[in-house]
Write a structure and sequence with these properties.
InterPro entries: Cys/Met-Metab_PyrdxlP-dep_enz (IPR000277), Cys_b_lyase_bac (IPR006233), PyrdxlP-dep_Trfase (IPR015424), PyrdxlP-dep_Trfase_major (IPR015421), PyrdxlP-dep_Trfase_small (IPR015422). It comes from Methylobacterium currus. The protein is an alpha/beta fold. It is about 40% helix and about 15% strand. It contains 17 helices and twelve strands. The strands form two sheets. It has a seven-stranded mixed sheet with strand order 1-7-6-5-4-2-3, with helices on both faces. The longest helix has 20 residues, at about 305-325. The structure holds pyridoxal-5'-phosphate. Pyridoxal-5'-phosphate binds near residues 129, 230 and 264.
Length: about 450
């Protein structure tokens, strides 16, 4: 364990030695200041009810009496003012005529994201999934071409609503492979009714398709294109600059960066598309985003590049550590020179982020990998990613076996890691202590 001055005792006192919270507190006392800042004063998940931020930080009203605070009613001096605002869907002071639809803070966020992506406009929704759903509902395609590794909740939305026929293509497909699927779709669906949906790199396993080839095929066929750009954020990739019509991002992840901005944005290249998205937002009510969330997003997005670079450097250090261990079969990340997607990674993204997946040796009993995960003291078992706290979660790839590309997935147990903003050496010390007696 690394040694540095002990942490302030007020933050570390409390949990009993022998409990996991106690072991974490003892470990954190030996960590560097940046690591301690990220994990204190949250010592005990039971006390924080599973929240990775201290209690109170989620309470918008305790934070500020300024701003609109998410009021539903927006007031007008005269009936005429109200009727004009209602007809336009705009209040004279920003936002909509009804506060649930859009706040002035949401306006500011939308303007910023439209600019970051070079779009005609943007909408912000209450989650990344709500942004995806709003986008799909706005354009109501009858057929959607999706990667077989599509972010599972998006796929579930499509299949549960039954709103469109789904044609899958391999997550690491070439332009020709998708071109063939486009021609197949063309036998049953008009171009105006067909959408080509991209997500790259793929969730959990990080395949990268030939984005340029797919866009060329879709454009030639006159199809609408949309891309889930959550992995990259505007920092690593701007879909509109690559000829894609619509970019969707879960700003829950890197733009907010601290796990306290559940939200998603949709940016469109064309004015007409933005009008459809805004209309759908009114219809669905998905625009009810807390102004506190918008305020956080508005400021934090400016530091996204610095955080991403730091996340990426830590993730690279952790991958190098895993790759030197006898229990690692493979690390999955397009940032690694040996990845089959490395050339496309360099072409499109250039630098990595906080995520990578470790495939453990297939000979290892699953229980030992689970014991390793349970012994981790800085990495929390939790969904989502892109925040300050390091996380770990099992990966269960959803694949269409018929469309698997040449090389198949690793056979051993797989876990996805989010390298947080702690000091990388502390994270490696945690991995090392957890692996002793479990994997080693
Ligand atoms: C997290 C995520 C989303 C959805 O974001 P939520 O805010 O959790 O709804 C969408 N796409 C990808 C690729 C994601 O990782």
């Amino acid at each position: 364990m690394p040694h540095s001055p002990p942490a302030p005792s007020s933050q570390e006192a409390g949990p009993e030695t022998g409990t996991k919270a106690g072991r974490r507190a003892a470990f954190l006392a030996g960590c560097r200041p940046a690591t301690r800042r990220i994990h204190a004063p949250i010592v005990d998940l039971a006390a924080s009810r599973g929240h990775l931020n201290p209690r109170g930080l989620g309470h918008a009203r305790a934070f500020s009496d300024l701003g609109s605070l998410g009021q539903s009613s927006v007031g007008f001096d005269t009936l005429g003012d109200y009727e004009a605002a209602d007809a336009a869907g705009r209040a004279p002071w920003g936002g909509a005529e009804y506060g649930v639809v859009q706040s002035p803070e949401a306006d500011a966020v939308c303007a910023k994201f439209a600019q970051l992506h070079g779009g005609a406009g943007a909408i912000v929704c209450a989650s990344g999934l709500a942004a995806i759903a709003t986008m799909l509902d706005a354009f109501a395609p009858k057929a959607v071409l999706i990667p077989d590794a599509l972010y599972f909740p998006a796929r579930r939305y499509l299949s549960e609503t039954g709103r469109a026929a789904l044609l899958t293509y391999p997550a690491g497909a070439s332009g020709e492979e998708v071109g063939a699927r486009i021609r197949e779709a063309g036998r049953h669906f008009a171009p105006a009714d067909t959408m080509v949906y991209l997500e790259a790199p793929a969730s959990g396993t990080f395949e990268i398709p030939d984005i340029a080839g797919i866009v060329a095929e879709a454009t030639r066929a006159g199809l609408r294109t949309a891309m889930d750009n959550t992995w990259a954020s505007h920092v690593r990739f701007r879909p509109l600059e690559h000829g894609i019509g619509i970019a969707v991002q879960a700003t829950t992840k890197y733009e907010g960066g601290y796990g306290d901005t559940p939200s998603g944005i949709v940016v469109a290249r064309d004015k007409a598309d933005i009008a459809r998205l805004r209309r759908q937002l009114r219809i669905s009510g998905h625009g009810a985003v807390s102004p506190q969330t918008c305020t956080r997003l508005f400021h934090r997005v400016d530091s996204a590049r610095d955080r991403l670079d730091r996340h990426a450097a830590s993730a690279a250090a952790l991958m190098a550590w895993f790759e030197a261990q006898p229990f690692t079969a493979e690390t999955l990340s397009p940032t690694r020179a040996g990845s089959p997607y490395h050339a496309r990674f360099r072409q499109y993204f250039g630098a990595g982020n906080s995520l990578f997946t470790v495939a453990f040796d297939e000979g290892l009993p699953v229980e030992r990998v689970h014991a390793f995960v349970d012994a981790l003291l800085l990495f929390r078992v939790a969904e989502s990613w892109g925040g300050h706290v390091s996380l770990v979660l099992p990966v269960h790839p959803h694949r269409d076996p018929a469309s698997l590309p040449g090389e198949s997935l690793p056979k051993g147990v797989m876990f996805r890691f989010n390298a947080g903003l702690e000091e990388a050496d502390d994270l490696i010390a945690d991995l090392a202590q957890a692996s002793r007696g479990t994997l080693l």
